[in-house]
Amino acid sequence: MQKILIANRGEIALRIVRACRELGIKTLAVYSEADVESLHVQLADEAICIGPAPSSDSYLKADRILSAAELADVDAIHPGYGFLSENADFAEQCESCNIRFIGPKSSSIRMMGDKAVAKDTVKKAGVPVVEGSDGPVTTEAEAVKTAKSIGYPVIIKAVAGGGGRGMRIAHNDVSFAKEFHTARNEAEKAFGNGAVYVEKYIQNPRHIEFQILADSHGKTLHLGERDCSVQRRHQKLIEEAPSPFVTPDLRKRMGRAAIKAAVAAKYENAGTIEFIVDEKGNYFFLEMNTRIQVEHPVTEEVTGIDLIKEQIRIAAGEKLNLEQKRITFTRHAIECRINAEDPARNFTPCPGLIDLYYAPGGHGVRVDSHVYGGYAIPPHYDSMIGKLIAYASTRDLALDRMYRALSEYIIRGIKTTIPLHRAIVSDPIFREGKATTAFVAEFLSRNPGELK
Fold first, then answer.
1. Is 263 helix (H, G, I), strand (E, B) or coil?
2. What is residue 14's predicted lDDT score, i.e. its pLDDT?
3. pLDDT-derived band of residue 49, with 50, 70 and 90 as boundaries?
4. Strands 206-214, 269-277: pairing kind
5. Which residue numbers are catalytic?
6. Which CATH architecture has domain 131-200?
7. Best exposed site among 179, 315, 335, 395 by fewest CB in 10 Å?
8. Backbone angles phi, psi at 437, to 5 degrees
9. Rounded distance, CA 122 to CA 125, Å?
């Protein structure tokens, strides 16, 4: 490949610029009017403005992105995460224009993007799934019947969902009716698709995901797991690898299941198989993310494998130069998502001007961020402004380094989640590796003063 268009913004766009530069590949940044001062725009080899600030008028405009690609004569498009990264129609348009989409084929995106279809696909491949409805439920009566047969509590999920939207939990028939319609309405607004399905709700599980790489020559392997249990409203805050809960035997079994799921989807490129795991170590397929994940750096620091470079090589038709038995996990890595939010005010977004910015450093610390002193965070996009990653030979040392790095991280002019992360990293339950998906809500209830 000679030139790649980066159809994204923020830290992931900058991450792709850096990987391309190391590979000797030219980059084209596309940006909205609000992102003219963003760091990835400044560091890319070329840049083209594709519209006004709202993402619906810029980063989600496939026709403008493809026009920029043709104008600049690029070989491929890297979608990053979010925006059009899991849009099967966009991937198909790239294919029809003879532009390589750095991700899976449109057919795989379409298959795994429909959660009901994805669940049925992996179930047929022998991957454990949570008991639930056979596909979408169309009426309240049908949904209630399914819920009763499964047994409460149940969770109602949007077929096209993601990011915790279109998800509601019901504990009885009375609450089910309300949550069913709320989930459908939210799904329709968020995804343009109000279809939902019903599953048994597993209380206080672990959220464990496996990183997959698959080439176009028939090789599929996994790069171990990430524990993403520390989350609020189904949105991740802290991720780590390896999981303090997963044993070598469980890792082996879950890794095999993840590969089965990817093969069933005829998957190519980088992807993630997400599982929920109960307290007894029983695991169930949750969904597949057909893109690079926000938390990919922890896998990179544990395995020493550059996932963005592997994505590009796979898209170029190269064979994976990796073997499953040679992939080792020699370090422990933890990532904190740094968001421009005020945790003390229910995580209200805090866009605005950064007066002073100082990123931490030192041995075992990595910062992936596109912001700097004097940068104005626009109010139009996701509030994540960076990722802080700490890694070491042991989990305890990685946690100590993370606390030290968080204490050094200075961002003035706006509120951020740094104080929350510092408090969580010091918490005994988290330090002992016992955090489940219920941890953050419980932590906030007993530590309200820690967030100010």
1. helix
2. 98
3. very high
4. antiparallel
5. 291
6. 2-Layer Sandwich (3.30)
7. 395
8. -70, -10
9. 5
